[in-house]
Amino acid sequence: MRTGTWATLAAGAAGAVIVRRAVAARALARRGAADRVALVTGASRGLGFAIAADLAARGFRLAICAREPAELAVAQAELAARGAEVLALRCDVADRAQVDDLVRAVIERFGRLDVVVNNAGIIEVGPLAAMTVEDFADTHAVMFWGMLYPTIAALPHLRERGRARIINITSIGGRISAPHLLPYNCAKFAAVGFSEGLRAELSGSGVTVTTVVPGLMRTGSHLRAQFKGRANSEYAWFALAASLPLLSMGAERAARRIVDAGLAGRAELVLTPAAKLGTRVHGLFPATTVRVLGWVNRLLPAAPGPAGPAVAGSVAAARLDSGLLEAATTMGRSAAQRLHQHT
């Protein structure tokens, strides 16, 4: 037999061994997760649903929450159909009393809590002139206080496990404040600061904190985001950026990497090449980065006047009725269907 043939057979055998080991490792991880419980906030749709589905596939029992009961019921039914044990509870994470009740209900149902994924979020897009002080307050309520409240409520139970995980979903907007997303960015900056400081404070406690810094992801969120100012034009650029494969990342792939990093206890996970490049450039050349963002701002739609009501992405899409934009956002709309972002 020729040397090349032996090499091919050897490579094939080695590949088979690697595959078998990977399958065995995943099966072992699944058995080890059989009694473990994960709480995911904002899990009725989008990235939160994808993370919950990934945890379910690993054998976790799930507690999920969201503000809309009908959407929550759909998510619960699909996760249960995949074989997961799911407790679904309506909860506004901006309301501390509701969050305390949520965590209490999880402990009463499962008797333990091993993983908390703080994912709930909202997105408002538009220039500062179109925003109000209330817009800043609303984003902070959900994405800062809505991260703090579940963490504080869950910590005593997580400490009991001896080896527990907190996974905080922040954003590249919490590292680089891009124009036309200012309320969102401010809330995400606060979330990053809380998450990184929390990891330091919990060092040695057995509870590890992972700060996830995603770039653009194809979750269908552009259909649920709120747009102000020249809403249709704002929707067009945001939907395009959140759908193109070179700029955005698939939600299911992102969820898999997020759960892997969180369970491994990693300090940080930055997702998408663009986000990684952006954070590095900003770290080395902050003044230049801000100058470039100023140029980008000039290309974005200007505010038509005083702040007005926000327009949902699905409404803006219907108003535009653009075949070209629809074709360019095919991947984003497909993600919206899979991840329950449709309205």
UniProtKB/TrEMBL annotation:
PROSITE patterns: ADH_SHORT
InterPro entries found in the cross-reference section: KR_dom, NAD(P)-bd_dom_sf, Sc_DH/Rdtase_CS, SDR_fam
SUPFAM superfamilies, alphabetized: NAD(P)-binding Rossmann-fold domains
GO CC terms in record: membrane
Sample GO molecular function, one term: oxidoreductase activity
Domain Ketoreductase: 36-220
Keywords recorded for this protein, A-Z: Oxidoreductase
Similarity annotation: Belongs to the short-chain dehydrogenases/reductases (SDR) family.
Entry protein name: Short-subunit dehydrogenase
The species this protein was found in: Krasilnikovia cinnamomea
